[in-house]
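Just curious: can you write a single protein's sequence together with how it folds?
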Amino acid sequence: MEERVEEFLSIEDEFFHLDHENKIAYMELEFETPKEIFDFNAVTKIPLINDDFMDWIKYVLDMAPRKYSIDISISFGNMDGYSSEYLKNVFLKNSVLEFKRMEKRVSKKNHIAIWLIILGVLLLISTIFLTGFWKEDGVIKQVVAYILDIATTVTIWEGLTILVVDSTERRSQMKNILSRVKSIRFQKL
């Protein structure tokens, strides 16, 4: 049983070269050309990191031990005329662009969440007025009050979920990338 626990705890060593003393996880990737991870932007002529590669980076950050920073080395068989420094700058610019894009999405979702909460409060006020001013007590009043009560609960709940949970997850994901990647190198094989 102890062996299985140790095997489970050391599974990360099979996927990462871990420097336990300095708490660094080393990742080494090999590609044929930079075109495999970059899409060419015809307008600005600056390569854009493709979504698959950004998703892979996020996946690595999730899989690497939490307290470890990550050192990524990306090697190419053919550099296609790009220098290592240029590709590193492109990666950094793309990371900032991704962070800005994510912030816009968070802002948009926050606006939706605020409107849902406002709608929920309006529904709550409607429910209060309905129960207070609707004098006759009948099945229709109970059904309408019940529907308004459910609608109020759902809209406020969804708004708060978006505002608190979703926004926090998205922000922490990008900050995770910016803070945990110790270094990234682009080089020829």
The two ends are 42 Å apart (CA to CA). The longest helix spans residues 84-133. The mean pLDDT is 82.
